[in-house]
Specification:
three-stranded mixed beta sheet, HET-domain-containing protein, 225 residues, 2 domains, alpha+beta, HET, two-stranded antiparallel ribbon
Length: 225
């Protein structure tokens, strides 16, 4: 990290991952923000289409939450969980499109406060995460995503946001176990349409939601066969 601005939040996250991986006896760690050359379209496309599998193969996935602090726990008589859980429930991490696969793909997902304090893992916090995201507890415990309907899986993403509009579709490729080329600039509507076409190839008895300005309307999955 020579020459890096060490005051940046991204550097703090990378440094945390390096330190935590060392504590856990892991030789390597991977962070998408610095390990993917987004200017290389071939590398970016391969990474996005492979990322879900990479997360599945990871020994651990660390979720570093810069907006969740335990600072007040040191000066407050409240139980430890009562200090950080309100901020945990409101964390921006649960509103981002790309983090859905980071939550569901790995077998072991561990959450950490901004100070580096471990808060728990996704199985131990499954009920809390279910309340925040409406994701089925069984999915958080590791049940295959193919056991959940297309409608259910799509509903888990409906409130999430992405910086690039096309990523609303691209971030779901692994959730539905499909692959497709990335065409940044095509817009959300076309990206979602292509995603549904790929999903429809794998789903025998279901067809796409109606599209409403490039988004799947809630609870509008049609029976078409």
């Amino acid at each position: 990290m020579r020459g890096a601005n060490k005051s940046k939040a991204s550097y703090k996250k990378i440094r945390f991952c390096a330190e935590q991986a060392a504590k856990d006896g892991l030789q390597y760690f991977w962070v998408d923000t610095c390990c993917i050359d987004k200017k290389n379209n071939t590398e970016l496309s391969k990474a996005i289409n492979s990322m879900f599998r990479w997360y599945q193969s990871a020994a651990k996935c660390y979720v570093y939450l810069p907006d969740v602090s335990i600072h007040d726990a040191r000066i407050n008589d409240q139980p430890f969980e009562q200090i950080w859980q309100p901020a945990f429930q409101k964390s921006r991490w649960f509103t981002r499109g790309w983090t859905l696969q980071e939550l569901l793909a790995p077998k072991n997902v561990e959450f950490f406060a901004s100070e580096g304090q471990r808060l728990g893992d996704k199985k131990g916090l499954a009920e809390e995460i279910h309340q925040i995201t409406e994701i089925a507890v069984n999915a958080l415990h590791g049940s295959p995503l193919s056991e959940f309907s297309v409608e259910a899986r799509m509903s888990w993403a409906k409130e999430r946001r992405t910086k690039e509009e096309e990523d609303a579709a691209y971030s779901l490729l692994g959730i539905f176990d499909v692959s497709m080329p990335l065409i940044y600039g095509e817009g959300r509507e076309k990206a979602m349409k292509r995603l549904w076409e790929e999903i429809d190839k794998t789903e025998t008895y279901q067809c796409p939601f109606e599209h409403r300005q490039g988004t799947a309307s809630k609870h509008s999955l049609k029976s078409c066969r």
